[in-house]
Every structure is written in structure tokens, then in C-alpha cells.
Design goal:
The structure is a single chain. This protein is α/β, with parallel strands linked by helices. It folds into two domains: 261 residues, no CATH class; 242 residues, 3-Layer(aba) Sandwich (Rossmann fold), CATH 3.40.50.1820. It contains 21 helices and twelve strands. It has a ten-stranded mixed sheet with strand order 2-3-4-6-5-7-8-9-10-12, sandwiched between helices. Helix 13 packs antiparallel against helix 14. About 19% of the residues have low confidence.
Length: 580
């Protein structure tokens, strides 16, 4: 799941006069004002001792040391950040010893918990891409009018590699807005060979996403402006501009997507998932959902508990959270990840941010403040590094394992301190799934608005947001205000939310495996604890480390538990549900 800051145009904002005063107070508590921050920034730049070209050379060397070039870095970081392909989302210290795989103890699944491998279902599969199979499925636009207008869902199947398949494993990478079709294409890098041998891997684009009757709001050029524009409403004029931008964006969504906007809520995606299960010919659902995909799976289990086969919910979302609680949780998660990075950075002899964690935190805050006033130049003179783009560029490497993200982030920040914003902008483009030609892959930056705005109510009152900003800043001094002002993102939305937060129980469902990572910045570990506790048959598997999601991301212990559960219906005994 993307950090909620990515949802909204207001992701940076500190608000009007009161918010600015709070920011000044926070700066003074950290020991610097604006001028001191600038002086520290200048000193830091001079202390780095390298210019733009040398910085770029150092970045190339660092990339080669961690084993990837630009294209490979883009692939791994995209997989991690947008949770479209979660291959890169490992965690923890790569040098730490792996916890031995726990010995499973069998439970008896319900008699219905095996899909029928002989059933062909009703989908008309056609070969579409190097042995892969594609199909479409018509589903109701409005489930209150099941015989009315329909929309089309895109599906892709990777046939099982073995001769004795169990059935279909439906997968979703997260988002909202992630393409399950693209995720399934990368099945070899996301799912173990043992599971792929026994299951057809089936990915689908949720309604409103990618190839499934997609939400469309604005042109790519307008989306560039929307995502990069001034996101710090320091006064009434900037707040008015923010509201105008949000209104224009929402109007574009309404004009281009119409009635679809009211029906892309996650509960409807869960209903679609049951029609997919039926069309596949399976009596029960086998499902792997990551990040936001866990929310789809949790609502499915609550709506159709008797049709739950084996569900793995990795990087769990807690459905009971309000919009504010959701954003606060992410503020805490990203702060933990940032603190870990800063601690690692200052332990190195060449950390560009300083020699102590406090100094590093001050330098980073000062850098963002300076960029907010004066965007940094990049290789594209028409796209300087603005404060929102810098924020995306900083957050992105925190999604991936420290061994892959920390060096890249330190180098990018070093370049920015030296006056070059290119690498942070490059990382921001990966976060936003933007191509070098100015196009975007899919429609995640638009769909994420549409889904969140109908799934649960958000704050839309400026005074309430200002009041909450102080609490957010206490949780995360740098990123908290971004997330607090993110609540404005749905203020101009043309349709009312149709969902409400609330716990799920899935009463009567077979055991459901919930996976949580203690250092997950996007779906904090507390959310996995909450979901597992709510589900009557929920079982929590813990990964101790950093990264977003844990399955097939470097932990043999996690992979062993998940694979055994999917293949044999077995879960570890009590006390054997933690890996590190």
C-alpha cells in the first residue's frame, strides 16, 4: 500500500498561519530556524567535497556494489513501493542469521477447502503472452442492480508448471490501483516454484484499475503538474490554490469516469473476487493478497466466510481504522523506517547528513524546507525537484531492504545537498510509476484517489486538519504534516463515501494466515496484529525486520510457513510463528 501522502495534492502542507507557527516551533525544538537550516545546508554541501559529476559517479558505483543498474533498480524499487510486484520487499539486516523454519502442525481444513482441479470454469482463456492466458469477465457495475450495467475485468493466468495442480491461486499486489495482471506476469519472481507447480496463478485488475474499465481523470501532463505542484499551503492564497487544484482533478475524474466513481469501493472488489472464483470453477478461494490486497481479502472473508479456502494476507491493512487513524499509523511506520535509515547513515564515515541522528534529522528537515522555497534543478529543465517530488524520492528507498535502499537514498540526499535534484526526481518518478517519456504506467495515481475517497470518510474541514497536524507532527516531525494535510484529498470528491471503517470477523471461515513485518512503513505491524485479532480464524505470522511485505522476499522461514499452508493446509504450532 502506498503511503497516504501519495494520494493527495496536499501531501506536504503545513496549513495556514497556525500551521506555520507550529512548524517554526518544531524547528526551534530541533535547534534551528530557517536561516540556521540554510547555513547548515551550505556547510554540509561544502563538507561533502564533490560536485555534480562526482556525485553521479559515486551513485553509479554504489548501485553496482548493491548489484543493480538503473533498469534493475527501477524494477526492484517499483515492485516494492507501489506493491505491484513485491519481489523487492524483504526486510531486516541482510547479514542476520535466518530463524530456522518452524515445524508445522497440521490442522484439519473443512471438506470444502480444496478447489476442483478438473473444473474448467466459464472463462474463455486465450493465449496472450508467451504461454500466458488472458480472459475478461463481466461483472455488475452496481451490485444493488445486478441485472443492470456491467463492466469488464481483465484477468491473466499462468498455468501450473506441474501435472497435478490443486487449482487456482488468485493474487493481488496492493495499491489501491496495482495491476494484478502485471503482477501475475512476474509470478516467477513473486511466488515460490513449489506453489507455482501446484497452482495456476491468476491475477486480475480490480474494477477501475489498469485494464478493468479504468478510472481516468486528467492528462499525463496535467498529472505531472498536479503531483509536483506547491504542496505547502502556507497561507490562505496557497490553500485556495490547493482546493482549486483538487476541485479541477475531481471534476476531471467525474467527467471522464462518470458513474464508475461511486462503485470502485473495496467491498465491490471483494464481490468481484467471488465472481472470479466462481468463473474459475473453484468451490473455495485460494488467495494471496499483499498490502492493500489484504483489505480485499479481509472483506472477502467477511462477506463469504464459507467460501474461504486458504487466504494469505501479507502486509495487512486493519479495516477498523478511520481515515485519520490510518494516516497516523502510516506516519508512525514511515518514521520508524526513517529513523532506522538515519541511524545507519550516521554510522557510516561518509553520511552526507551529519554525524549524529539529531543532526541528520535537522539536515533532512532543512533540505526539504529549502526545496519548498527553491526547487532544485534536474536534468529536465521543465521538471525541477519540488518538495512533493523530493518527499516521494525519500520515501521510495525506505520500502525496500536496507541493503538495496539505504546507499541509494544516502547518495540521492548527498546530491540534493550539493544542489542537484536529479536522482531524487528519478526516484520520485519510480514511486509514481512515471516513464521517461512523460507517460504513466497504468492509472494508479488516479485510482488511488477514487478508491480511498469512497471506502471511508475523510476529514475535509481545514480547522480539524490543522488541529490534527500537531499530533501527526509528534508522531513524525518531517512526514506527519504531509499525511495530516492529505485528508484534504477527498474534500472535493464528487461522490460520497459508501464504506465505513469497522472490524471484520469472517465467522466460520477456515484458518486465515495474516503476515506482518515489524518494520513495515506502509502497513505497520500493529495493523497485522489488529486484523489477526479481529478474524475469528486469523493466525498471525510475524517477520522481525524492515521492508514492506515479507513473503518470497528473502526469508526462508516466512516462505516455508506460507508455502506449507497453501500447499498442505498446515500451520505452525503455538509459539512458532515468528521469523527473523
Amino acid at each position: 500500500m502506498k503511503i497516504r501522502a501519495a494520494l493527495r495534492r496536499s501531501r506536504v502542507g503545513y496549513g495556514q498561519n497556525q500551521a506555520r507557527e507550529r512548524l517554526v516551533l518544531r524547528r526551534s525544538r530541533l535547534g534551528y530556524g530557517q536561516n540556521q537550516a540554510r547555513e547548515r545546508l551550505v556547510l554540509r554541501r561544502s563538507r561533502l567535497g564533490y560536485g555534480q559529476n562526482q556525485a553521479r559517479e559515486r551513485l553509479v558505483l554504489r548501485r553496482s556494489r548493491v548489484g543493480y543498474g538503473q533498469n534493475q533498480a527501477r524494477q526492484r524499487l517499483v515492485l516494492a513501493v507501489v506493491a505491484l510486484l513485491a519481489a523487492g520487499c524483504t526486510s531486516g539486516d541482510p547479514s542476520a542469521e535466518e530463524t530456522p523454519s518452524p515445524t508445522p502442525s497440521a490442522f484439519e481444513p473443512a471438506e470444502s477447502a480444496e478447489p476442483d482441479p478438473e473444473s474448467e470454469g466459464t472463462l474463455g482463456w486465450e493465449e496472450c503472452d508467451n504461454g500466458l492466458e488472458c480472459a475478461t469477465l463481466s461483472v455488475p457495475l452496481d451490485y444493488d442492480d445486478p441485472d443492470g450495467e456491467t463492466i469488464e475485468l481483465a484477468l491473466l493466468r499462468v498455468p501450473a508448471t506441474g501435472d497435478d495442480p490443486i487449482g487456482s491461486l488468485v493474487i493481488n499486489p496492493g495499491g489501491p490501483g496495482g495491476s494484478g495482471v502485471e503482477y501475475a506476469k512476474q509470478a516467477e519472481g513473486q511466488i515460490s516454484g513449489a506453489v507455482r507447480e501446484r497452482f495456476d496463478i491468476v491475477g486480475f485488475d480490480p474494477r477501475g484499475v489498469a485494464s478493468s474499465t479504468p478510472i481516468d481523470c486528467v492528462s499525463d501532463a496535467d498529472l505531472d503538474d498536479f503531483l509536483a505542484g506547491d504542496a505547502v499551503p502556507d497561507d490562505d492564497a496557497e490553500l485556495d490554490e490547493l482546493n482549486a487544484d483538487l476541485e479541477e482533478f475531481a471534476a476531471g475524474c467525474q467527467a471522464n469516469s462518470g458513474d464508475l466513481l461511486a462503485h470502485v469501493n473495496t467491498a465491490n472488489v471483494a464481490r468481484d473476487l467471488d465472481l472470479i472464483r466462481e468463473a474459475l470453477g473453484d468451490d473455495v478461494l485460494y488467495y494471496l493478497g499483499k498490502s492493500y490486497g489484504t483489505y480485499i481479502g479481509a472483506l472477502y472473508a467477511d462477506l463469504f466466510p464459507e467460501r474461504v479456502g486458504r487466504l494469505v494476507l501479507d502486509g495487512a491493512v486493519d479495516p477498523s481504522l478511520t481515515s485519520v487513524e490510518f494516516a497516523l499509523g502510516q506516519a508512525g511506520g514511515v518514521q520508524r523506517a526513517l529513523t532506522a535509515f538515519l541511524a545507519d547513515c550516521v554510522a557510516q564515515s561518509d553520511c552526507p547528513l551529519g554525524g549524529t541522528e539529531t543532526e541528520a534529522h535537522e539536515t533532512l528537515a532543512g533540505l526539504l524546507d529549502v526545496i519548498g522555497d527553491d526547487p532544485l534543478p534536474t536534468d529536465d529543465p521543465d521538471r525541477p525537484l519540488t518538495q512533493p517530488l523530493a518527499t516521494y524520492g525519500i520515501i521510495l528507498p525506505l520500502y525496500v531492504p536496507p541493503a538495496e535502499g539505504y546507499d541509494v537514498l544516502a547518495q540521492a540526499l548527498g546530491e540534493a545537498l550539493a544542489g542537484d535534484g536529479e536522482t531524487l526526481r528519478f526516484l520520485a518518478d519510480i514511486y509514481l510509476d512515471r516513464n521517461v517519456d512523460g507517460t504513466y504506467n497504468g492509472n494508479q495515481n488516479e485510482a488511488i484517489f477514487a478508491v480511498h475517497c469512497v471506502d471511508r470518510p475523510s476529514l475535509d474541514d481545514v480547522e480539524l486538519i490543522e488541529a490534527s497536524a500537531e499530533e501527526f507532527a509528534e508522531v513524525s516531525p518531517i512526514f506527519g504534516p504531509f499525511l495530516a494535510w492529505g485528508e484534504m484529498g477527498c474534500a472535493q470528491w464528487p461522490v460520497e463515501p459508501v464504506g465505513e471503517p469497522g472490524p471484520v470477523t469472517a465467522s466460520g471461515a477456515d484458518p486465515i494466515l495474516v503476515v506482518g513485518t515489524t518494520g513495515d512503513l506502509a502497513t505497520p505491524y500493529e495493523w497485522a496484529e489488529g486484523l489477526a485479532e479481529q478474524l475469528e480464524s486469523g493466525v498471525l505470522l510475524t517477520y522481525e525486520g524492515f521492508g514492506h511485505t515479507a513473503y518470497f522476499a528473502g526469508s526462508d522461514c516466512i516462505d516455508s510457513v506460507v508455502d506449507t499452508y497453501l500447499l498442505d493446509g498446515e500451520l505452525p504450532g503455538e509459539g512458532e510463528l515468528t521469523c527473523s
